[in-house]
Prior knowledge:
Helix content of chain B: 40-55%
CATH class of chain B: Alpha Beta
Largest sheet of chain B: 5 strands, mixed
Family (chain B): Belongs to the thioredoxin family. DsbE subfamily.
CATH superfamily of the largest domain in chain A: Cytochrome C biogenesis protein
Shape of chain B: elongated
Distance between the termini of chain A: 90 Å
Mean pLDDT of chain A: 85
Keywords (chain B): Cytochrome c-type biogenesis, Disulfide bond, Redox-active center
Radius of gyration of chain A: 35 Å
InterPro entries (chain B): Periplasmic_diS_OxRdtase_DsbE, Redoxin, Thioredoxin-like_sf, Thioredoxin_CS, Thioredoxin_domain, Thioredoxin_ResA/DsbE_sf
Subcellular location (chain B): Cell envelope
Structural class of chain A: mainly alpha
Strand content of chain B: 15-25%
Number of helices of chain B: 6
Radius of gyration of chain B: 21 Å
CATH topology of chain B: Glutaredoxin
Domain Thioredoxin (chain B): 36-180
Number of strands of chain B: 5
Oligomer: heterodimer
CATH architecture of chain B: 3-Layer(aba) Sandwich
Helix content of chain A: 55-70%
Low-confidence stretches of chain A: none
Mean pLDDT of chain B: 90
Amino acid sequence: MLKYFVLVFTILFVSPSFAVEPDEILDDPVLETRARDISVNVRCVVCQNEPIDTSNAGVARDLRLLIRERLVAGDSNDQVYEFLVARYGDYVLFKPPWRPSTYLLWLAPFLILGGGIIGMVYTLSRKPQKPRDGLSADEQATLDNLIGSNSEKDAS
Amino acid sequence: MKRILMTLPMVVVLILGGFLYWGLNADRNPNEIPSPLLGKVVPEFALDSIDGVGVDGFGSAELSTGGIKLVNVFASWCVPCRAEHGVLIKLAAREDVDLYGINYKDQPIDAQRWLAEMGNPYTGVGSDFTGRVGIEWGVSGVPETFIVSPDGVIMYHFRGPLVGDTALRDFGEGLRRAREQIGQS
């Protein structure tokens, strides 16, 4: 029983491992939190789909230390991002900035959603073709004719 | 309205096809990192020399005078650098350029041994033990090579070893265009 409890407990409470090493961590918890927030959004340039926060690459560690240094020196978060973008380009940010070259990227989901809504409204607003009640006079006449001719046949 | 709607599948296919065609382009490298430093003046830095190498260290000042310069980022622990080294030696001998080396995150003694063994094509070698200058240059991994104009503007950035036809063709093209730009043939 206890075995299973421990198993479930460990599965439920796993936390992602971070590459931040003890000697990197700042004494000031506020600055450290800001450094962590920034490093989650910065791409490691060696292992490209990993943020530097979880990367063990040498450059990632250098960048983490650099971010902390800049924060200690009094930079704002935006200034730190600017510093990195000036050297590695927008590419290092996981969240691309809002500027003319990225308008399409940011707006595409809304454009597609809008297109879908317009298409849906158009389809739904078309008059549904309901079947009419009963038969038209012509149809009734044809039908009567057929039934009539049949019953005449039966009678004979 | 119906007419417009009927062309919609065609439009979607064309747009999607266009993207896919673009994605198939063999020259496109999805891992390529754009370099924002192109067209900018080299970062402010000064690197100390390495004892026993026989050439001076260098910094922004050296890169802002003279002719076209190549700045190569290398390390003794980097295997592709070893492969590239012969090419650099030939390049430095053949082309009318000064080759500078940033020794990236390397023990100076290892760098000195490495250059003694493999030969030293560099006009200046600076030790970037902490990797800070590498970050200033937007280096993501060694080796990388930059082409710097006579007045210290970064004109070309090549990531990876200068080995193989494709790499040499691209780099040669970069060098040719750099020369064209400064009006020298």
